[in-house]
Amino acid sequence: MQFTDFWYIVAPSEQLRPNTVLARTVLGEWLAIFRSENGQPVALRDRCLHRSSRLSAGKVCGGALQCPYHGWVYDRGGNVIAVPAEGDDFKPTQQRRAKGYATKEQDGYIYVRLADTPSEEFEPFSMPHYGQPGWETVRVINRFANNVTNCAENFIDIPHTAFVHPGIFRNSRHQKLEMTVERWNGSVLVEYRNETSNLGWYSRFLNREGAEIKHSDRFYLPNITSVEYQMGRNRHLFITSQSIPETDNSTLVYTDVTYNYGIWNKLARPFVRWTAQHIIRQDIKILGIQGEAIAKYGTEFSNTPADTIHVFVESIRGAIARGEDPRSLPNQSVKVSFWV
User: Cβ atoms within 10 A of the Cβ of 302, count?
Assistant: First the structure.
């Protein structure tokens, strides 16, 4: 198994309009993304075969992509279908074909897979309740100066929230929480207990009766985190992030906040967007600081029991990096107490 076997988001569907070309980077590979004449997304290596200009700086005409340097034109299969300098002497050849990649469109996102022959035919992750009646989704996109592993760990880490997001998300109360952390079939599953009211600014709205919160966190290979809160009727929330590896130290994160607040769904939308983006900006800052320290001193961490989640995530991603299937790792379950 390799990281290239999986599907990665390259754009929201609405962003890839006809006659638009987008430049993206996935696992260090430069991509030019556009729509063909039939509206299907196309991903080509972002390099013209002629003089190595970047195709993403070109333009789309009739579903074909024209290089900005000498005007070579590529169809949806990467074939060169026009060379202006050759005029009427032009003849297409199989040697003139840009590298192309498989694409899919699902849940309002465009996905790309880099592997031509993956070890297994995976499907893109299904975003929870996207487009379903009674649910609203707010989408935000942010770039982090850190790797996918550290981003994913941050997104499903409770202890940092009292210090990075004081007030808006949680406050430090020396409150004892319990969690069960399970590594199972290449995923990390976390169930929390004893959470009630420490939810920051919106505690009264989110959990007005002060009932115990049903909170679970999930990590799915190779790059997906999903946080779920249930706080009674019409107080149900998912925060799902797909962390896209651009380079070793740059991760583009697509986050869906999908919620069911009943009659408050539409009214809550601007507050949900503002709060989500405010929290993410704080995480961008702290992960940038961590990334700088890692670049200088490396990743020799000193773990606590509360970091069991991180240890399991690292074991899964480490297995893929070695070309192994993390689903073959032994299933393991750990009960942990920690304080926030």
Answer: 5
Q: Is the pLDDT at 232 greater than 90, yes or no?
A: no
Sketch the domain layout of the chain as residue ranges: 3-113, 136-339
Question: What is the amino acid identity at position 41?
Answer: P
End-to-end CA distance of the chain, in Å?
A: 37
pLDDT tens column, 129-180: 999 999 999 999 999 999 999 999 999 999 999 899 987 766 667 789 999 9
Count of other CB atoms within 10 angstroms of residue 14: 10
Q: What is the pTM of this model?
A: 0.94
8-state DSSP, 229: E
How many Cβ atoms are within 10 Å of 204's Cβ, its own excluded? Answer: 11
> What CATH number should be reported for the domain whose range is 136-339?
3.90.380.10
136-339 and 3-113 share a CATH fold: no
User: According to the CATH classification, is domain 3-113 in 2.102.10.10?
Assistant: yes
Tokens 């949806």, residue located: 76
Q: Which residue has the tokens 């996935």?
A: 26
| Dist CA 161 CA 9 (whole Å) | 27
